[in-house]
Amino acid sequence: MRIIDLKKRIGFFFLLSIYLNTWAQYEKPEGVIRFMTYNVAYCRGYDGFQNGSKTDIYNTQRIGKIIKALNPDVVALQELDSANINNRYLLEDIKNASGIDYQMVYGVSDYDAYAGNYGNGILIKKDFPVLGVKRMKLPGTVYGSEPPIKNNSRLLLRVMTEKFYFMCTHLDLDTEQRINSGSIINNELDYMRKPSFLAGDMNDSHRWGGGVFTSSFNETWDLYSTTDYTISLPDNQNTIDYILYHNYKNRNEYSAVSSYAVRGKLDIPGESYPIQVEYASDHLPVILDVKDNFSTGLSESCLSKVLVQQRDNQLSLYGLSDFSYTYFVYSMAGFPICSGTVRENENLIPLDFLEKGLYILKLMQGEQTILNWKFVRF
Question: Which residues form the Endonuclease/exonuclease/phosphatase domain (predicted)?
Answer without folding.
Answer: 36-283
